[in-house]
Amino acid sequence: FIPILGRVIATFLCSGEKEVDLAVQSAKAAFKIWRKKSGMERSRILLEAARIIRERKDEIATVETINNGKSVFEARLDIDTSWQCLEYYAGLAASMGGEHVQLPGGSFGYTRREPLGVCVGIGAWNYPFQIASWKSAPALACGNAMVFKPSPFTPVSTLLLAEIYTEAGVPPGLFNVVQGGAATGQFLCQHRDVAKVSFTGSVPTGKKIMELASKGVKPVTLELGGKSPLIIFSDCDIENAVRGAMMANFLTQGEVCCNGTRVFVQREILDKFTEEVVKQTKKIKIGDPLEEDTRMGPLINRSHLQHVLGFIEQAKNEGAKVLCGGDLCVPEDPKLKDGYYMTPCVLGNCKDGMTCVKEEIFGPVMSILSFDTEAEVLERANDTNFGLAAGVFTRDIQRAHRVVAELQAGVCYINNYNVSPVELPFGGYKMSGFGRENGRVTIEYYSQLKTICVEMGDVESVF
Ligand SMILES: NC(=O)c1ccc[n+]([C@@H]2O[C@H](COP(=O)([O-])OP(=O)(O)OC[C@H]3O[C@@H](n4cnc5c(N)ncnc54)[C@H](O)[C@@H]3O)[C@@H](O)[C@H]2O)c1
Ligand SMILES: NCCCC=O
């Protein structure tokens, strides 16, 4: 689909059980070659792939924008965090290793960090190229092969990544792409030659993936949904807090897992903050996402647009006040008349029990709530089954650290929101998932440790 035009541009055949098996077998063959390469050799190939992504950045960003609807300005940032991820793991590939342990009598042991084998990546539609890069870079750096299934809504850009890996010199089949939806994903998770599944998507699908993988005792990484709190204290730099709240809610049309959609504002600055955030939200340029100055494009598809608008209707019925936006939008350009556009929405008078405050909307809808004390806001911020991200704006640095130490979230931002340095681990607490992407720790999620115990003397048998 092209969300900008509301039209189909290409169709892909879904991979069935046979095609999934072919992909896994060719990944398995490539794994035999790749696992024998030294870290330095793998690093060189990943660096070359990163270079090609940088070189083709505009082309990849354009494809991403056409298929997903996000502004090309943002898509370029996604592509940056993609090649940066490849560079980061290329840098770590050569230094992966185990340890040497001295034992009594001159005996010793050592550990080897070894790849898992064929890993499966399953992606969501909001960051197609970035998700494929964040999964494949650490997987390949550790010596694994990967079969990746993008979302059927955004099947295109992952194919460019496969092309780039091949051009950079990975063995044929090392990074394979299969297309399809739930059925294809299930075949992948159940395949006996698959060693691990890394999934990005919703909580309900994450549960199913975990169940399927458990049948083969396969480890899983789950990057799931969220309903993250953003806490704005009255001593903050208000301009930065407003910018932070916009970053926390309106990137990629609000279709972002870690968005800080529950914006808690301390009562003393509630009116001033709300007035400014509404003013800035009304200024967001909606339109053709391929134009340089557009900052919000169409949502992913019609049914998702209706789903998001439904949340706004329900919020009104439950007593929230629409302070701006929340309507269907038809851009002036006639070619965009069938696109899935809506105006970004700020909801005031929100209460903790409202549906818009409790459920992940995955659209451009910010809910503003007021609070009085630190203890109260912490209690309310943590009162959710999700735990992906959280943010705090304050000039009091002691309070900032005290608050993030209490927040039940895998990623916490102090005086910023939704930045993604690849050097830092990303992932959730509670029902937002487990395992991490990015950062040094992710090596542990794509490798296994072998212990070798070496006897230097005679065997002392108990028999
Ligand atoms: N935590 C993160 O890093 C992160 C990042 C992006 C999106 N998300 C979450 O993803 C969700 C939106 O994405 P979505 O609508 O594509 O999610 P989704 O769960 O509907 O689909 C995700 C992927 O899973 C596949 N799939 C669906 N059913 C399956 C099954 N039974 N077995 C195997 N695979 C199956 C889909 O085809 C798709 O590729 C939101 O909840 C969002 O918060 C999380
Ligand atoms: N840039 C990270 C976004 C991942 C969640 O949707």
Automatic annotation (TrEMBL):
Keywords, ordered alphabetically: Cytoplasm, NAD, Oxidoreductase
InterPro entries: Ald_DH/histidinol_DH (IPR016161), Ald_DH_C (IPR016163), Ald_DH_CS_CYS (IPR016160), Ald_DH_CS_GLU (IPR029510), Ald_DH_N (IPR016162), Aldehyde_DH_dom (IPR015590)
EC numbers on record: 1.2.1.19, 1.2.1.3, 1.2.1.46, 1.2.1.47
Keyword Oxidoreductase: yes
CC per GO annotation: cytosol
Molecular function terms, GO-annotated: 4-trimethylammoniobutyraldehyde dehydrogenase activity; aminobutyraldehyde dehydrogenase (NAD+) activity; formaldehyde dehydrogenase (NAD+) activity
Similarity annotation: Belongs to the aldehyde dehydrogenase family.
Protein name: 4-trimethylaminobutyraldehyde dehydrogenase
Organism: Sarcophilus harrisii (Tasmanian devil)
